[in-house]
Amino acid sequence: MSEIEQIPELVTWLMSTERQAAVVLVSVARSTATPLVQVGRLMSELDGVAEVVVIATQEAGSVLRSQFGPARHLYGGAARVIPSRRFIGLLPRLHLPFGPADSARVTDAIVADVRRLGGGVMGTVPAPEPAPSGR
């Protein structure tokens, strides 16, 4: 099955009340044909808390945008966190890297979005430990 043929199933899953984890949707940049965010890092840091889905072709991205409203601006390397249905009213903003040099900043912002949402009901991404107070 091609990626385009899988989009209706993806949309159904994204809209499902059964889905408990946040999803990070990542598009690829036309100029590089690769994601501009650090997908490996997202998968590692958000493991067990959010699913990371890369929309690998422009054609599949176009079909997704036409079928799933929150993805309507997801192209050109942009990424967006889709909350679990429990937090769907708290849709974080779209993140668009300005190029490969912007990758770390946008990846940080996506991880922060998932943390703010508590990762859905599967669990939470732990906040960084505070620095010792010196006492």
Summarize the structure.
By secondary structure, this protein is α+β, with helices and mostly antiparallel strands. The protein is built from four helices and three strands, in the order αβαβαβα. The C terminus is likely disordered.
Overview of the structural elements:
With 135 residues, the chain is an alpha+beta fold. It has a single domain (3-109), classed as Glutaredoxin (3-Layer(aba) Sandwich). The protein is 33% helix and 12% strand. It has a three-stranded mixed beta sheet with strand order 2-1-3.
Task: Name a few traits of the molecule.
135 residues; three-stranded mixed beta sheet; 4 helices; disordered C terminus
Which CATH architecture would you pick?
A: 3-Layer(aba) Sandwich
Kindly give the count of domains: 1
* Structural Rg: 15 Å
Number of strands: 3
Largest sheet: 3 strands, mixed
CATH topology: Glutaredoxin
The percent range for strand residues is 5-15%
The assigned structural class equals alpha+beta
Tally of individual helices = 4
Identify the overall geometry: globular
